Amino acid sequence: MRCLLLLVVFFVAGPWKHPGEARPLVPAVMLFGDSLVDIGNNDYIQTAAKANFPPYGRDFQDHIATGRFCNGKVLSNFIGEALGFTGSPVAYLIPEASGENLLSGANFASAQSGYYDQTAHMYNVVPLSQQLEHFKEYRHKLVVQVGSNQAQSIISDSLYIISAGSNDYLFNYYVNPFIYKSQDQFSDLLIGILNNTVAVLYGMGARRIGVFSLPSFGCAPLAVTVFGHGGNDTCVTRLNNDAMRFNRKLSTSVELLSKRYHDLKIAVLDLYTPLYSLVTSPGSQGLEDSRRGCCGTGTVEATVFLCNPISIGTCPNATAYVFWDSVHPTEAANNVIADSLVDGINLLVM
Ligand SMILES: *[C@@H]1O[C@H](CO)[C@@H](O)[C@H](O)[C@H]1NC(C)=O
Ligand SMILES: *[C@@H]1O[C@H](CO)[C@@H](O)[C@H](O)[C@H]1NC(C)=O
Ligand SMILES: *[C@@H]1O[C@H](CO)[C@@H](O)[C@H](O)[C@H]1NC(C)=O
Fold first, then answer.
1. In the annotation, is 35 catalytic?
2. CA spacing 20 to 30 A to 258: which of 3, 28, 175, 346?
3. What secondary structure does DSSP assign to 140-190, as a single string?
4. Following CA atoms 293, 297, 301, 307 in sequence, which dihedral angle do they give, to the nearest 10 degrees?
5. Which candidate in 34, 38, 168, 325 is catalytic?
């Protein structure tokens, strides 16, 4: 009887862990930003930027469209798994995000948002500043759950991931070329917001922060279609150059931030290189097609606009594709990208 009770307690105490496996490397994970990590927050807000209908989620567990902009798992799933969890922590806006479910962290990300709140406002999604407010609220709930000492230790030992910037460029800067004076000013604006975001998280107790670099978004099929001038290039060099320039500034700032906050571990997690390698030599990772997304014709389709249940031409099997829709990587590509982040993440959580 006693033994049975212990067994029950074991399973009740650790629903977010693999039973019998090692404890996760951190108590919890907190994710902020955009669709590369969002697992369904946008399902609960009024926006067109949703992915809660087929064929999204086609290869996910139970073939459910969860709001992930992918056929299967997104980067937050793979990062969670690498740390010893079953996947991403719970999406903060879903009704089940309460009580015990908050103990392994929360996912505050909202697809189509960026560093700049204006980008999120354009598409009615949750701006980064609001995601930080949600984290503040989360912190109070955690204190109620486990008391302030335990909450404090969870907050400071957790891994924080920030994934932003692509939408600021692709869906704001490039579509409003006359609003922003120069790419230099625009990137400074974004880096200033990152600085502030790090300061706010640090102020609330965060001590381990991974910041995604910009991916090589000039290689996204949508970018090639819209900005590639009908050529046959695999990637739009001008856009990738912008991403690289931003990433150089990002690295410098993150280094300076780590000096400013002595007890903060912070690092850039490079998305640019692994995506670029996948696109330019998909065969090296067992993939084949990097020019077209799987959904629809593969050149412009994303969200309900064109990637939807009646999209014509959707590929039968996404496992050989780098892109799922015209901007988002497939599960297969996310798996490769996440693998390349593991060393950097390990340094943060050591
Ligand atoms: C960001 O913070 C770093 C480190 O303190 C600082 O050197 C840099 O000038 C800041 N950048 C912007 C754009 O605010
Ligand atoms: C693109 O590539 C195809 C096949 O390799 C070729 O037939 C076509 O002329 C190329 N188009 C341009 C604009 O270079
Ligand atoms: C897709 O192809 C892969 C590799 O050939 C195969 O393992 C998988 O079962 C296929 N998936 C579907 C849904 O047909």
1. yes
2. 28
3. HHHHHHH-HHHHHHHHHHSEEEEE-SHHHIIIIITT-TTTSS-HHHHHHHH
4. -100
5. 325
- Separate counts of helices (H) and strands (E) for the chain: 11, 6
- What the chain holds in terms of domains, given with CATH numbers, is 2-349 (3.40.50.1110)
Residues 136 and 152: their CA atoms lie apart, in Å, by 13
Q: What is the mean pLDDT of residues 153-164?
A: 98
The binding-site residues of ligand 2, defined as CB within 6 angstroms of any ligand atom, are 230-232
The answer to whether the CB of 30 falls within 8 A of the CB of 80 is: no
Q: Is 270 designated active site?
A: no
State in Å: Cα 285 to ligand 3 middle.
16
At 74-102, the pLDDT tens digits run 999 999 999 999 999 999 999 999 999 99
The pick from 186, 253, 260 for probing ligand 1's pocket by mutation, whose C-beta has the most ligand atoms within 8 angstroms, reads 253
What element of type H or E holds 196?
helix 183-203
Helix axes 331-349, 272-280, angle to 10 degrees: 150
Which residue pairs from 59-64 have beta carbons closer than 8 angstroms and sit at least 24 positions apart in sequence?
59/318, 59/319, 59/331, 60/331
pLDDT by residue (tens digit) across 283-314? 999 999 888 999 987 676 666 567 888 888 89
Ligand 1 lined by 256 (C-beta under 6 Å): yes
